[in-house]
Amino acid sequence: MLDILNEQLVNDHIAHPVCFDNDCREGICGMCGLYINGRPHGNDDGITTCQLHMRKFHDGDDIWIEPWRAKPFPVIRDLVVDRSAFDKIIQAGGYISTTTGGVPDANTIPIPKHKADMAMDAASCIGCGACVAACKNASAMLFVGAKVSHLALLPQGQIEAADRVHKMVCKMDELGFGSCTNTYACEAECPKLIKRQNISRLNRQWIGALFGRDRK
Amino acid sequence: MNLPKIHSISKKILVGALGAFLSFFLLFHASANLLILRHDGGEWYNAFCHFMGTYVIVKVMEIGLLAALLLHVVLAIWLAVTNKMARPKGYHKLQRSKTHTGSKLQVWTGILIFACLIMHFTDFYFVKIGLVKGKYLAKTEDVVALKTTQPNAFNYAEQHGEYSAKENWLTNFDKEDKAVLEAAGLEVEPDFYHQAREKFKILHIAISYLVFFAVVWFHLRHGFAAVFQTFGLYNYKYGKAIEVLGQIYTWVVCLMFTVVVIGVYFGL
Amino acid sequence: MKLDSKIPAGPLAEKWTNYKASQKLVNPANKRKLDIIVVGTGLAGASAAASLGAMGFNVDIFCIQDSPRRAHSIAAQGGINAAKNYQNDGDSVERLFRDTIKGGDYRAREANVYRLAEVSGAIIDQCVAQGVPFARDYGGLLDNRSFGGAQVSRTFYAKGQTGQQLLLGAYGVLSREIARGTVKLHTRCEMMDLVVVEGRARGIIVRNLVTGDLERYAAHAVVLATGGYGNLYYLSTNAMNSNGSAAWVCHRKGAAFANPCYVQIHPTCIPVHGDYQSKLTLMSESLRNDGRIWVPKKKEDAEAIRAGKLKPTEIPEENRDYYLERRYPAFGNLVPRDVASRAAKERCDAGYGVGTGYAVYLDFADAIQRLGKDVVEQKYGNLFQMYQKITDENPYETPMMIYPAIHYTMGGLWVDYELQTTIPGLFAAGEANFSDHGANRLGASALMQGLADGYFVLPYTMQNYLADQIYVGKISSTTPEFDKAEVAVRERLNKLTTIGGDKTVDHFHKALGKIMWEYCGMARNTESLNKAKKLVSQLEDEFWKSVFIPGNANEMNPELEKAYRLEDYFELAQLVIDDAMHREESCGGHFRTEHQTEDGETLRDDEHFMYVAAWEYQGHGQPETMEKEPLVYEHIQVSHEVHITYLASGERPSQGPFRDLSFGRHLARLFFP
Predict the structure, then answer these.
(1) For chain C, which has fewer Cβ within 10 Å, the N-terminal or C-terminal residue?
(2) What's the domain range around C305?
């Protein structure tokens, strides 16, 4: 839709086209993200902006499109925001420390299927930032919770689990994200339908990190 | 201002823990309140209040409770302020996501509750610490013996209040009677039974309390499950159960409070 | 130009081991003195940067998106192959190697492919250690499924999001290196030119996409991992920002471009539903297991459907043309992907297309009747759901519509065994190079190749190159070569912004895509290619006259980005056409209608075309010169039978009665080998 608007703007030499982020157009890259008529990714569940179709609107409707609004997501231009805060949270510890080579055979550690499946559900986060955009507190808890859960559910990730959650939450606070007040707008707007249970697990991990013995 | 550094989740956990403590107190408070519905001249209820007012562990806990309340409020407002700061520029369009409304209102219901609490304290709690005056009772060793030892006081008591031979106390005195009784050397303490019965008879007070309970209902309804979520106990297995439990708890607590007010109003 | 593939001596199975044993290494203290630039953060780029960073090199990594995690590797659905033989079904390095060579129609280099198969197992180990949540069975061990042209189950998968999970794994280790300071990340930066100093790749010029500034980065070596050029066709399954420009500027600077005509087409994409559409979405080919493909038998019915006057469910059975079942009774709807794609296009061109005229029906009514809705839902539920989300039609009630689309490009920068291009110091990895897939890629092999290059090949072979670079010292970015390159880029951008015509870039891109799809798409012949060549030249002339780019080069300007990418596509299109023209045979993703069997299958000409065609740039508008790298098959015997390339991406229809066999006449081969 914005393609058309822009093509028209260019055709009619009216204005500079509206800048907006987009890439894969199939709801997996997480690049697109617009706040449409009061909902991140528009008025449908479990989709990204690029998967929202014009048929979800009525003829003659006004459509309000806004960029993500949050302190850690400064607007770059028009509808383009800078989401590098998410990268910084991941860089703070959202990984398992491995170097190439020198790892055991893939089947050395069996992982219960339901746990692997839960980890997969959490890992399906595309980092689009809709959770932050939707949250009244601009909180990144669902994003952080999904990553922490994904790795904490796997035995490979448990080794660094306590450290990871501590570092990621500290980074999250430092970057100026709000905190979770259990509104679950994030869950309602997540294009990958990531569940709030992941936030709960994040909290649990945090308590474990504070009081457990896994961290200095 | 240099605020101590507490991580966001820790703050939330604290608010949650304090909230859990407070809501547990509510259950306790509500069940005790049911005693008001007994037409026993305050025998049981006042006995309970006497215990609460004198037992040393309870007194310590009382301070803890007040501290918890204040901390709960301070931390929650602190969180709310930082949360507001996380989005300096808001959206033009109102948010239309499907969410738990309880949470969006939590801060506001909390503030309302705090306002209502001031009313509640003026009505009851401040009487106890002597800030305002209410209904009083006087405890004696032996009410019957009082008749002979201090007949003046006893007659005064009989005219202005009631007495219970069984519990050995004189009850239902107004504030102006307090001085007389004290002058007679009697130990005077608040008479919450009669006070409640008197207050809840007044329509606007009864209604304002019902509003109060409704707000508490909102606050609790969200708060209960949220505490589990914040403590990391909300999971795929028990999530539903926790929510149901939260509903039951909220309804039970609020209904118990409500029943007392409505009951008293209609003279039960 | 001389092509030296640098294949190590020795028996095939020992080549890589021998190479590693005798290659030059850089000692740890010297590694931090060496700078490496990696362009692209997809599987190949991220894994290479993370591995090189962890080893101690100074790495700068660049991506055009706002985060490394957005690279288009993320969209791969199906899975990743590895010769683990966890299923005990006879898989081995040797078999994976053979399948890949065969799948590539004997147009890939033996040694490279063998190495790919050899390191495939380690990729899975690596990914599991990184926390990639691969699917598991109830015992907690890794699950596999069969995929694209293999008789064994060797594909590891993570739901339908394998690419995403692998990329997030690589992104994780990359993030770790960024945090450690060994890798510096530059987002929203596009590589505009390669700087060659004294014959070696020594740096790049990038354009900051936010500010429009041109920036210089110097290094001892440059790794290009910028993916393929599928967007040349405008409508493809590639992401909007995927482009071939980074590879193309390297080509302009002297890197040979190999086999550009090999492009892969996927038969089951969700078709275009309007002129406004900008890209296509792929659906798993497993749908063809149970779906029946048809178009209306009568043209007037097709017209009525296109006009919206008739619903597909209203067309009686006898008026439906199940053209695949009609033409290929043995295979029916399970014909190989090339055949299915071409047949669909043929019907639509003949005027029987539905939807916008470029779609055919894939009907599940029979399957639902036969198996029950539950079974169908279990098997294809998520695909149906995706389809419904996109098209707003319920595939349980009305037939799905499908159409083929460009999906992957096997061609790319020519690289030797070390993945080094013809410019010393410039390496190419992943889809950006041409190396491992020959003329066609097997399903679930793209992810394997990207990660193999990044994790296990480049970290070794680059050291071999860098070993003597420790004496060079820090590379300066203020040399005349950098000045010259930057000025050239600036001129180029200014030229584009000052054309001042009245048409949008997309207008030209769409037109170019249409020409290429029509005349140099899944079927080509001399006539169509000649036509394409002429049309592309005309279009390019028009582009330079009448394109309009708003704004200027010194700001965020998506139209300008599209424009310079399109400018490169014009040249690339000419090369694809030239390559397709010169290759007088059909093989893999390259189908010349002049060269086909009676059954409409590809007909190779091994005698004359068993080579890699590496093209050298000769200046704008000049025909490029071609160098041949002969392909020598020492280890494998080239089968002269017609090979059926199966379902390059997406699941292989495994339910069909003819599983992996060629048309009926190959049936016997299985029983009497």
Answers:
(1) C
(2) 266-406
Q: Å from B22 to nearest chain A CA?
A: 18
The label of the residue with tokens 């994790």 reads: C455
CA torsion angle B77 A205 B242 A182 (round to 10): 30
Same domain, C395 and C497: no
C135-187 pLDDT tens trace = 999 999 999 987 755 678 999 999 889 999 999 999 999 999 999 999 999 99
C385 vs chain A: nearest CA distance in angstroms? 11
8 Å CB contact of A156 and C159: no
Whether B contacts C, i.e. 3 or more CB pairs less than 8 A apart, is: no
Q: Which residues of A touch C172 (CB under 8 A)?
A: 90, 94-96
The reply to whether B231 touches chain A by the CB within 8 Å rule is yes
List chains adjacent to chain B, taking adjacency as at least 3 C-beta pairs closer than 8 Å: A
Question: Is the C-alpha dihedral spanning B215, B220, B225, B231 positive or negative?
Answer: positive
SS3 assignment, position C657: coil
Domain tally, chain C: 2
Does residue C370 lie in a domain region?
yes
Domains of chain A, each with CATH number or no CATH: 2-99+108-211 (1.10.1060.10)
Domain span holding position B181: 136-190
Which residues have a Cβ under 8 Å from the Cβ of C615 and sit 6 or more positions away?
C251, C256, C257, C258, C260, C575, C578, C579, C624, C625, C626, C627
Q: What is the pLDDT of residues C516-561, one digit of tens each?
A: 999 999 899 999 999 999 999 999 999 999 999 988 899 999 999 9
Kindly report the pTM of this predicted structure: 0.91
CATH number at residue C388: 3.90.700.10
Stretch C298-321: mean pLDDT: 91
CA distance B234 to chain A (A): 6
pLDDT confidence bin for C279, thresholds 50/70/90: confident
C133–A150 CB contact, under 8 Å:
yes
Instruction: Looking at the structure, tell me whether residues C390 and C270 fall in a common domain.
Output: yes
- The answer to whether residue B97 sits within a structural domain is no
Burial class of C197 by CB neighbour count within 10 A (0 to 12, 13 to 18, 19+): middle
Does the distance separating the beta carbons of A17 and C559 come in below 8 Å? yes
pLDDT for the residue numbered C665:
39
> Is C386 found in the same domain as C289?
yes
Report if residue B216 sits inside a domain.
yes
